[in-house]
Amino acid sequence: MTSNGWLQILVYGLLILAVTKPLGVYLHRVFESPERPLPRVFGPLERWSFRLCGVDPDEEQNWKEYALALLLFSLVGVAVSYLIMRAQHFLPLNPQGLGPVAPDLAFNTAVSFTTNTNWQAYGGESTMSYFSQMAALAWHNFISAAAGLGVALALARGLTRRAASGGEAPRTVGNFWGDLLRSINYVFLPVCLVSALVLVSQGVVQTFSPYPEITTLEGAKQTIPLGPVASQEVIKEFGINGGGFFNANSAHPFENPTPISNFLEMLLIFAIPAALTYTYGRMARDQKEGWVIFGAMALLFLVGVGVTYWAEARPNAALAGLPVEQTLGNLEGKEMRFGIADSSLFATITTAASCGAVNSMHDSFTPLGGLVPLVNIQLGEVIFGGVGAGLYGMLVFVILAVFIAGLMVGRTPEYLGKKIESREIKFAMLYVLIFPLIILGFAAWAAVAPYALPSLNNAGPHGLSEILYAFSSAAGNNGSAFAGLNANTPWWNIALGLAMLAGRFWMMIPVLAIAGAMVGKKTVPPTLGTFPTNGGLFPVLLVGVILIVGALTFFPVLSLGPVLEEYLARQGRLF
């Protein structure tokens, strides 16, 4: 570890903190204020898109209507993407003449991008045409992120909306179509347009030209993949999707060529999840509520990046005694233009934020270095998390923490003046239990199935870690992987596709149900027995609840994977 590495981590954290308030204020104006920003610029676009889609944003929905709109829209998205990939050989912008994508892979990929996972069991440059990359994949990067943002807003409205003076409490949580279109028009399109141009200035390619063939210095022939990369690269980071245009993802020099492009991509990943905490504070009419959530997220993130950097900056114990130079740390699977610090920081960010983009290969990390990204995912998309998913996941844990605090003092728990009762706790526990059920159930199946095991390139604890990471990434809608697993087989494509669907929508529905249950409740004034959720003690309780739930759920299987692998490596054994 070096002072330069720690300085980069510090600068990154300070810039995220600096972005949180202005972007949070902007998001609040977009979604909650009648006076939206830049009306002369975005007003006509908003009116045109609403008119084209037949949407009345003032016609609000209850939680069931909101959920139905989300599910139907997502189902159509899966179908459209599947058909595009299956028919790409008939469609334009296919200069390489690539054939149709196999049915099981097309299903997996369509589900993957619809659920904001962007798990890729294929090499983009050898499988997807330019048209498929844009119309079936990059398009989903916009709308899946917008859908997740909408669910977070719906839950925030359910928790923060109050009855007007002398009136009845509201029963609606917003309008899905209004949230979706405003997310795209006001947030994703303008930021991505500007940021894509910055990436192009750094050397990220953006072209429809066919792949050129060049002669290398040795006289051999080499084909150089190209494509409309910058436009997909920026939304994959800002929308926290993660799917790369190329197989090497953000480790590829045409996706992420310079330290400047690398730093910009990391900033884009955390920008919206961090800002949403400030937006939530404004919606709650108490900015401290937002900062408490931000503080809990930041604490978990800083611990994770510190452990990862420490683990990767030291020699790999498994290589002790071999003629391998390790004075610079564990460099396997890392780009030298980024080094240990930026690789460790990127890996922690992308798994804390449920992005899945990578600028190094997590499969090549040390056992403890790879443990942190895996744990980040398994804690449930709450360390900043995906667009919207991080906030609503953390708010579910807030409800659980408030409930536990209420049990300790022997009174009905309250949050923002609303009583937390059995119905909300049942939905919250459903949310918490679905996640490990998907991961552990599928992982146990894969660990014994004769048609699943041949896909592993490693035996022993590392092989188990690859299986566990795959289903954690799928259920957590992350998309990164331990690349030693060949997941492009019919069973893996279907199993991971089902895990992605369940991890996205089986967890969104309880969240929206909590929003519907909370929005109609009357607020009660705080008393001496009310546990304060805007002070310094609550984030400690919140982090404790998150870690205890995660440890009780996943520690047994982690002890058989990366923990055991670290122990064996220290004994000089590979497995």
Give a quick summary of the entry.
The protein is mostly helical and 575 residues long. The protein contains 18 helices and 4 strands.
Query: In percent, how helical is the residue content?
Result: 55-70%
Number of strands: 4
In percent, how much strand structure appears in the residues? under 5%
Distance between the termini: 28 Å
Number of helices: 18
Strand order of the largest sheet: 1-2
- By secondary-structure content and strand pairing, the structural class works out as mainly alpha
Shape: globular
Main sheet?
A: 2 strands, antiparallel
Low-confidence stretches: none
Question: Multimeric state of these chains?
Answer: single chain
Mean pLDDT: 91
Radius of gyration: 23 Å
Note the run of SSEs as H and E. HHHHHHHEEHHHHHHEEHHHHH
Explain this structure.
The chain is an all-alpha fold and 575 residues long. It has helices at 3-32, 39-53, 63-86, 103-114, 124-127, 130-160, 176-202, 229-238, 259-283, 287-313, 339-352, 367-378, 389-409, 422-448, 460-475, 490-519, 537-560, 562-570, and strands at residues 213-215, 221-223, 414-415, 418-419. The strands form two sheets. A two-stranded antiparallel ribbon has the order 1-2. Helix 1 (3-32) crosses helix 9 (259-283). The radius of gyration is 23 Å and the shape is globular. The model has no long low-confidence stretch (mean pLDDT 91).
